[in-house]
Write a structure and sequence with these properties.
The protein has helices at 4-20, 50-62, 64-67, 99-111, 125-134, 156-172, 294-297, 314-319, 333-339, 350-353, 362-373, 383-419, 427-434; strands at 35-41, 74-80, 84-93, 137-144, 177-184, 187-194, 231-236. Among the domains are: 35-208 and 222-236, Rossmann fold (3-Layer(aba) Sandwich); 262-285 and 303-342, no CATH class. It is built from 13 helices and seven strands. Helices cover 35% and strands 12% of the residues. A hairpin with a 3-residue loop joins strand 2 (74-80) and strand 3. Strands 3-2-1-4-5-6-7 form a seven-stranded mixed sheet.
Amino acid sequence: MKRFVPCLVLLLWSFCLGTHAQPGGKQATPQRENRFLFILEASAATKRNAETCQRTVIELLGDEISGQMKPGDSFSIWTYNESLSAGRFPSQRWNPETRRNTLRQVTNFLATVKYEKVGRFDVLRPAIESVAKNSPRLTIILLTDGKQRVSGLKFDAEINKLFDDNYSAMREARMPFVTILVARNGEPVAFSVNSTLGPIKYPRPPPPIDTTSEAAQVQPEAPRAEKSDTAIASGKESSPATLSNPVPTVPVRSPEPRKATPVSPPTAAGEGATPISPDSKPVPTVPPPTAPTKGSEAIPGVSAPSVTPPIDTPLAKASSGEIPTPSPRVAATDTLVEKAPEMKMPDAPISKTKPPIDPPINASATNESSNVNKAQPVKLPSPAIAVINPVETTTGRRSLLGTALALVAVAIFLGYLLLRPKRDSSLITKSIHRLPK
């Protein structure tokens, strides 16, 4: 019984802690492994560049190959001349925490490399093809003197041309060519040829082309290869920028102006003028511009553009007693006259609910109409609260229940310790207590 109670308390306590844990953390998606392969030409021609080759490999590893090598990626080092040596430095997992120890191992290995015989690239081709087929993401860093021609690769023609154009300068400077080749699913997709005078550029593989978007149809122009001592060239699968579907320009037609008909002067000031033409549609009477009110503009159901046209029309000028002269603006009145019948001031719904507003009370009419036009906010129920609350209450009830069970168990344990019966003393203990002190 004594051992059972503490175990029960610990079990209940762990249950209480488990109820407070909030699941929902996203599991990290597994990162695809990148494989980096250093291939060093160990021929007699590259012996003069041996120190530079070793320093370049150490610097690339220390810089994590321009930040491309992530923890968990693997790298290995091969050497070749007339034959391939691929097992002397086994493949290792990159770990930034053990960077110093890894670089020390690489330095010790490179110090044991012997530069002899003649370099032959044809001994590399079968091994590279085999590794590329088994590695979805492969990066090859090739350090050569540029004398041996590259063959059997996708970009061999471009690489060999860069070797031929810059071989003399690189030989005088005692620097190797650093060729980086990026392959995806066994197929080379990008490359770069660099020297060791400046930072080595890592070629970026082209992103997947999205044919659905218009932006994917515009491709950037490929950089031209230039002779340089720092970074010689880099290339990838690309084409010059061309816009396959330019936006066509649509000509905009301007409305043909109509000839304005002369308007006869009014017989008396303030009376209506004669219509513009006998074929024009009937125009509702518009109040004269001399006494405009703000209340009439704020009546709901009447749009603002329908009230402003009488300022430039001959009808408004005729009401003031002047004879309008033909002008190009009169040509636009036919469109305004056609839109004018949309005004239905007598049929406005406000006349049924509110009494007509007298002309003298302009300020109050404006205030009332502005209040009517204001849209009252509509309160919508939030469905998110109704969904989240039951989950919170359920979690809270579980935690309270677990805490209550834990407290009850602790109380039972303490009560048992206090109320348990005392053992009877043995005869030896009783005889000791009876001895005279």
